[in-house]
Amino acid sequence: MIEPYCGSAPLPADLFVRWNFDPALLVGLAVGGGVWVARRGACWAAGLGWAILAVLFVSPLCALTSALFSVRVGHHVVMVAVAAPLLALSLRRTATASALTRAGSAMFMVHTVLLWLWHAPAPYAAALADPAVFWAMELSLLGSAVALWLAVLAPAGAIGRSLALLLGSVVQMGMLGAVITFARAPLYDAHLGVTTAWGLSALQDQQLAGLVMWVPGALPYLAVALVLLGRRLDRPIAANEPVR
Asked: Is residue 33 part of a domain?
């Protein structure tokens, strides 16, 4: 059996020595972050976004995802709902962002399909069995999330459209979380037998994963929706300006 990219499931005693210093990953983060800053200029949002990605993939959190599906789901939630919007903030005034704003519904559908696909048992198992598939999962989730957030955060975008995309994201993530939470048997074979060291059965770990996606996963989208609404209400509407 091929070992997952993040390594075998760690025991609690050795978690904090399980840093991931994969040279290809470190070079990718350094080059990617450097090119991003060089092309877009220094930006706190981009810097924080890249720092979060480094923590997700370099720190012992990466190894812990091999043991607990709930941590894997939390890892994905932070990537698509925290790191992705930060990266999108640094891109939202580009021509690409303007194009994606007009294709917001398509970006939502693509991201939704990918999120459900990679959390289905068979594709998820394939990602853990092959590092190339693993990176296809991670990069497609991150890329589609950045595209979706560009549509949500575009300066010229209609607030109604942005709120609809945010609400749709909350609903679809909640539905996926509910499916995972209420499954009556463990669905993810890779986590069978490796969760007990962490005080959870495989089914309990899976239920926790569903709740993470269902509840905390919705909070960033709801928070952004409230910020957008607050800004819209604070801005006076000109007499000839349509309400969008």
From this structure: yes
Q: In this structure, is residue 236 part of a structural domain?
A: no
Residue 3 lies in a domain: no
Tokens encoding 109:
């559908």
Instruction: Summarize the confidence of residues 199-220 as an average pLDDT.
Output: 96
pLDDT band of 175, cuts 50, 70, 90: very high
> Letter for the amino acid at 187?
L
- Both tokens of residue 110? 């693509």
Q: Which pLDDT does position 43 carry in this prediction? A: 77
What domain range is 125 assigned to? 15-229
**Percentage of the chain lying above the pLDDT 90 cut:** 73
Question: How many structural domains compose the chain?
Answer: 1
**Is residue 138 included in any domain, yes or no?**
yes
Interior CA angle at 108 toward 40 and 218, to 5°? 90
Per-residue pLDDT reduced to its tens digit, 155-174: 766 788 899 999 999 999 99
Distance from C-alpha of 155 to C-alpha of 151, rounded to nearest angstrom: 9
* Long-range contact pairs involving 214-217 (C-beta distance under 8 Å, separation at least 24): 214/173, 214/174, 214/177, 214/178, 214/181, 215/177, 216/74, 216/77, 217/73, 217/77, 217/81, 217/173, 217/174, 217/177
pLDDT tens digits, one per residue of 122-153: 999 999 999 999 999 999 999 999 999 998 98
Q: Taking the CA atoms of the chain, what radius of gyration do you get in angstroms?
A: 19
